[in-house]
Amino acid sequence: MGLADIDNVDKKILRLLQNEGGLSHAALAERVGASSASCWRRIKALESAGMLGPTVRLVRPEAVGRGLTVFCQVRMKAHDSAARSDFERFVESHEEVLECYSMSGDWDYLLRVVVGDVQDYERLLMQGILTHPAVATSSSHFALKRVKYSTSVPV
C-alpha cells in the first residue's frame, strides 16, 4: 500500500493523527465523516502498511531541562562498515542524540542533540563524540531560536 492506494478519508486520518494522536476512534470518525468501526479498520490497515508508526506524546524539551538544541556534523576517519556500525551504535546509546542522519557531501553524519546547557554539550562532545575512535572531526551549530518545528509529514 502506497500513497496512491489510499483514498481521501485515509489521507484525512493520517493528517489528523499526526497532530492529535490521542483522538478516539469516535472523535476521529466524526471529523473524517466515517463510522468508528471503519476508522478502526482503516487505522489497522495503515499500520499494517507501515504508514502509521507508534502513537507517542511529544515532550517540550525546555520543559524538562533540555532547552539547548545543537546540530553536530561529524566526519569519520574511515568509512568501512565496521567503523560506521560502531559509531551508529554509539549514537543509539546516547539519549540526548534525538536524530542521526548519514549524509552526502563533506560531512558523514548530522546529529540533532538536545541538552540542558553548553556544559552538557561540551561533555558529550569532548568525552564522547570526539573520543570515538571512528571520528575524525566535528562541527557544532547552536540553535538560537526554533522558527518552525513539525513532526507532520505532508499527505
Protein model, in words:
With 155 residues, the protein is an alpha+beta fold. It folds into two domains: 3-48, Winged helix-like DNA-binding domain superfamily/Winged helix DNA-binding domain (Arc Repressor Mutant, subunit A); 61-142, Alpha-Beta Plaits (2-Layer Sandwich). It is built from five helices and four strands; from the N terminus they run αααβαββαβ. It has a four-stranded antiparallel sheet. A hairpin with a 6-residue loop joins β2 (97-102) and β3 (109-115). The longest helix has 13 residues, at 36-48. The protein is elongated, with a radius of gyration of 20 Å. The chain starts with 7 loop residues before the first helix and ends in a 13-residue tail after the last strand. The mean pLDDT is 95.
SSE inventory with pairings:
Elements: H1 8-19, H2 25-32, H3 36-48, E1 68-76, H4 81-92, E2 97-102, E3 109-115, H5 118-129, E4 135-142
Antiparallel strand pairs: 1-3, 1-4, 2-3
Helix pairs in contact: 2-3
List key phrases describing it:
Alpha-Beta Plaits, Arc Repressor Mutant, subunit A, alpha+beta
Q: Given this structure, which CATH class of the largest domain is correct?
A: Alpha Beta
Helix content: 25-40%
SSE sequence, one letter per element? HHHEHEEHE
Low-pLDDT segments: none
In the sheet with the most strands, the strands line up as 2-3-1-4
Let me know the CATH homologous superfamily of the largest domain: Lrp/AsnC effector binding domain/regulation of amino acid metabolism (RAM) domain
- In percent, how much strand structure appears in the residues? 15-25%
Termini gap: 14 Å
Total strand segments? 4
CATH architectural designation of the largest domain: 2-Layer Sandwich
Instruction: Please describe the biggest sheet, giving its number of strands, its sense, and whether it closes into a barrel.
Output: 4 strands, antiparallel
Radius of gyration: 20 Å
